[in-house]
Amino acid sequence: MSGFEAAGRRFRTEAEYKAAKRDLKMIEEIKSKVHMDQPGEVISLSEALAKGQFRFESVVGNEFDDQVYELAERYKSQGYTKNSILPAGKRARKKAEKENRKKKSAGKGSQTGGKTKRQVSLEDYDADMRKIILEEIKKREKRRKLLVILCGFVAVGCFGYFGVYSYFADRTQMDYKSLAMLKGSDSLAGGSWQTPAVTIHYTQEEDVELTVLPEYETLYNKNKKLIGWLKIDDTNIDYPVMQTGNNEYYLDHNFNQEYDKNGSLFLDAACDVVHRNTNLIIYGHHMKSGRMFGNLNSYSKKEYCEKHPTIQFDTIYEKGTYQVMYVFRSRIYNEDEVIFKYYQFFDAASEKEFESNMQEMAALSLYDTGVTASFGDELLTLSTCDSSETDGRFVVVAKRIRAE
Prior knowledge:
By secondary structure, the chain is of the alpha+beta class. Helix content is 39%, strand content 18%.
């Protein structure tokens, strides 16, 4: 609907639309204070974004974050630092042009018959004018000193941003390494922590008793929102998968429920790993650092897929191995557009419906993997942002081949 459109993008829900509008307002405020043609300011902004000083809520904000990061990296590759000022910047050019015009004007006025007039001194003015001129000089000197002090604070702040950014980046890396080490650990097992069985109430009439795999008991006790673990061998994708009643919280929170611009991998709220859907959809940010699904688009090359043909996705109740089947690019469509929307494909009520969805994905796929699926097979879809088009998405779909 046209009411859910912002920045040339369409959003499925009013909540996503409002989040995008808030991000646009924040971006406008940032641009009003930061000159994007000045390397030092852009690099400082990039570090502030990495620290999480500005918290974006939508793909609009994430794309602006990526643009700032890319521009900052470009400036750095050219040898600029946070203290650099680009002489050829727009403001500098305008100032230079203004000064040139003043010089030309002064030059014309100071020449009379080839003779140069003497320079005007303060003594040439009356007492009242001298007083006004001296007051203006004092004001300018105060502004200059204030600017020097402000620049000093900014420099200190920038170094602080860099230090904090490095800390958070290292913390995120260490956190997930620690979590990976906790898989299979019994450090919290035993006593009051031990949970050999978990009873889940789906309706008042139905109780389903499920046993958390021993491998994930410790992690589950740390955060009950854990729903599984995703791993692709020989890649950095080795993360816990979370699930809540909405698809927003883990966009900017980590496993420890701390704010983290990397967010977490999370299973769509509409998915059910117990009353198993036909298709489970997992989302993750496409981070320039490579974290989360930052390297998922490596599957755009068939050679990469051939080297990484399987994906391991364990729920906290059972293990599962999946074989990559389709790789394609798509985008978020307007609700009234009649077109295949992979992010709405959770269940197939009939074989005909299943085959129709398979044909749609096969047609979109960047290459033929030789893997196909039949009605009754269990699917896994990994989804992340893609900058090749507005509201773009990069998608990998796999079929479960073994239950361990």
